[in-house]
Amino acid sequence: MGLFSKKQQARTPLDGVDVVLADLDGVVYAGPGALPHAVDSLNEAALSIRLGYITNNASRTDASVAEHLTSLGLQVAASDVITSPQAAMRLLAGIVPAPATILIVGGDGLVDEAEKAGYTITRSAEDAPAAVVQGFAPEVAWTDLAEAAFALKVPEEEGGIPWIATNTDWTIPRERGVAPGNGTLVSAVHTAIGRLATVAGKPEVPIFEEAKARFDAKKPLFIGDRLDTDILGAVRAGIDSAVVLTGIDRPKHVLAAPDGSRPTYILSDLRELHQPYPQTVVKDGVHWVGDAGVRVTGADVEIVAEGSAQIDLLRAGAAAIWASGTPVFVLRVPERLYDDPFHRP
Q1: Is 23 designated active site?
Q2: N or C: which terminus of the chain has fewer CB atoms within 10 Å of its end residue's CB?
Q3: Cα–Cα distance, 62 to 39 (Å, whole number)
Q4: Residue 3: inside a domain, yes or no?
Q5: Residues 321, 36, 207, 256, Cα dihedral to 10°
Q6: In a 3-state reduction of DSSP, which class is residue 21?
Q7: Cα separation, 220 vs 8, whole angstroms
Q8: Among the three residues 134, 168, 199, which one is the final residue of a domain in this structure?
């Protein structure tokens, strides 16, 4: 449409970035298998940019995550992986120093980091633990949640022990679909005891700060699939972000993203890291992205031009709705903007 300069068209999401920090579930893989185009796109980025991986999934060690990623065709060392159990141990160290006994609810990833930090580990409330640390693992059972509830029955303000959750993601993408995440397990304990956990991983800032420090990142780009953890955390940490539509959140979530959870970039898949990212241009109240145009007039969202790419229509719709300052539930949004041809597990 002649709205964009050559300079604007030439820029990709990777321009000026010194470190790419990628979430794993829903971005690189779903279950054991790689998502389409993820490995090739990340390998291409690695030719000129440092890569790191941030995960809220506490079920595996950093070494096992690195091994998995390498088996998919990436070149990853354990030191390239930042996990929520690592963030949890740093948080715990300021509250309950090692070698205190802590009750672990979770898998090998959490146990490994607790051992590295010098803590004594128990699975029973009868061992009088000094804290409870809870993280996701597929094998977590009712008995594990019950032990956490028994250990946490006294409120912390009345002398009870601290409770740290590695993360509170409600869902986790798997190869067969979307499954309950650690947030559902933490919620079960909360329902039993009426206490809230302190959260160490995304969307809290410490896990991002650790990543920036580890890679000496000056201008990182974080890639995630969830607005409420990945993008919110990146925004809080002052990091540019990209939401990729290969995991949990869908176009309807992007359009409804509240201030503070809005990504810098919206991507169909990771191939678009290397493609020119069209700038949003506002002309006569219409938000244009490529040849797609959307405007908001009062309570009506109007598609002026659908354009040639669904992703650009979504970008234009998001830009118009976000700029309106009106919550999406108040607006009349055309169903066409909610179209979702993008890959998901």
Answers
A1: yes
A2: N
A3: 18
A4: no
A5: 20
A6: strand
A7: 20
A8: 199
Query: E-assigned strands of 123-253?
Result: 131-134, 163-165, 171-174, 177-180, 198-199, 220-224, 240-244
Instruction: Check 15, 18, 25, 40 and give the catalytic one.
Output: 25
Q: Which of 15, 18, 23, 249 is catalytic?
A: 23
The strand order across the sheet containing 300-305 reads 281-283, 286-289, 292-297, 300-305
The residues that bridge with 33 in the sheet, in sequence order, are 30
Q: Is residue 8 part of a domain?
A: no
Do 22 and 74 form a contact (C-beta atoms < 8 A)?
Answer: no
Which ranges constitute the DSSP H helices of 158-268?
A: 182-193, 206-215, 232-236, 251-255
Q: Do 59 and 107 contact (CB within 8 A), yes or no?
A: yes
- Catalytic residue list contains 340: no
In a domain, 72, yes or no: yes
Q: What angle do CA 223, 229, 235 make, to 5 degrees?
A: 65
Same domain as 333, residue 305: yes
pLDDT by residue for the chain (345 residues), tens digit each?
444 444 445 599 999 999 999 999 899 998 889 999 999 999 999 999 999 999 988 988 999 999 999 999 999 999 999 999 999 998 999 999 999 999 999 999 999 999 999 999 999 999 999 999 999 999 999 999 999 999 999 999 999 999 999 999 898 878 788 899 999 999 999 999 999 999 999 999 989 988 998 999 999 999 999 999 999 999 999 999 999 999 999 999 999 999 999 999 999 999 999 999 999 999 999 999 999 999 999 999 999 999 999 999 999 999 999 999 999 999 999 999 999 999 765
Residue 218 and residue 249 in one domain: yes
Flag whether 114 is in a domain: yes
**Side chain identity at 277, as an amino acid letter?**
Y
Indicate whether 78 and 213 sit together in one domain: yes
